[in-house]
Amino acid sequence: MNINVLLLLLVTLVWGTTFPLMKAASATLSGVEISALRFLVAGLVMLPFAMKASRAAWRDGAVLGVVALVSYVTQAVGVEYISSNRSAFITSLNVLMVPFLGLALGGRLNAQILGAAALACLGIGLLSWEGGGNWIGDGITLLCALSYAIYVILLSRRAPAHHPRTLAATQIVLMAAFALVWMLASGLSGDRLATLPARLETTWLPILYLGLVASAGMLFLQAVAQRHVSAEKAAVIYAMEPVFAALFGWLWLAEMLGGRGMLGGALVVIAVVLSEWKFNQAERAPAT
């Protein structure tokens, strides 16, 4: 595997840790609050880099930031109703959404990537189907998957035009601003803003991790790697996310994973390796 694929796998590993963390934090914080606070932390860290950005970087950062923020907030809200395993499964449906959305936007379907994506989704289904559903949580998380599929496509198209650190910084700063306004607006009708400091006493450490590592660090690495990896291929790599989410959900939240779930995880791993092997074979083919 090349370095960009390894970077995306690292991103996916870290994202896998966020599902049980958000599930635990949702006991005291709303999905909007979790998203706003994590990006406020990330935005403060990335602000010096964003100040040097061009107008084009701010423009693309705004587009990417809005789409990404919708996916993060809907994921955080959805996990209030469903298990972290099931949330990871539904989120990973973007694996199949990306090729079809790319086709609608003028792209072409790649049979190898589409086959690997289908295998990955089958694995994710086996991995997470053991958990119960909730139509509100499922529907909100499905919107997360759609938003993230759009984000992956836009990022692959716009990342090559900018320095990864600058593009990540503008996205994060704008996401922090948008999310903060969203949180303040949603908290004006009750006592949620007044009680926020007390509720943060038990969740400040996960929020710092979500902001510094999972948001600022991983969005930067994602912008670096997706300069050289297609949206379709990146989406299949991201299918590893529920495997890691299931592992950390089992370790931290005691969410059970039976034999069917283990088989599903194996299928996801096979799909990711298959997609990478196919691409490497094509890259090594002699020119004619």
Number of domains: 1
Helix content: over 70%
Total helices: the number is 13
Order of helices and strands: HHHHHHHHHHHHH
**What amount of the residues lies in strands?**
under 5%
What summary fits the major beta sheet?
A: none
Oligomer: single chain
Class by alpha and beta content: mainly alpha
- Report the principal-axis shape: globular
Note poorly predicted spans. 279-288
Gyration radius from CA atoms, angstroms: 18 Å
Q: Let me know the number of strands.
A: 0
Q: Termini distance?
A: 25 Å
- What is the residue-averaged pLDDT? 84
Task: Please provide a brief summary of the model.
By secondary structure, the chain is mainly alpha-helical.
Describe this structure in words.
This protein is mostly helical. It has one domain (3-104, 133-257). It has 13 helices and no strands. It has helices at 3-25, 31-50, 55-78, 84-91, 94-104, 111-128, 135-158, 164-187, 192-200, 204-225, 231-237, 241-253, 259-284. Helix 1 packs across helix 4 (84-91). The longest helix has 26 residues, at 259-284. The protein is globular and about 50 Å long. The two termini are 25 Å apart.
What distinguishing features does this structure have?
single chain, 288 residues, mainly alpha, 13 helices, 80% helix, disordered C terminus
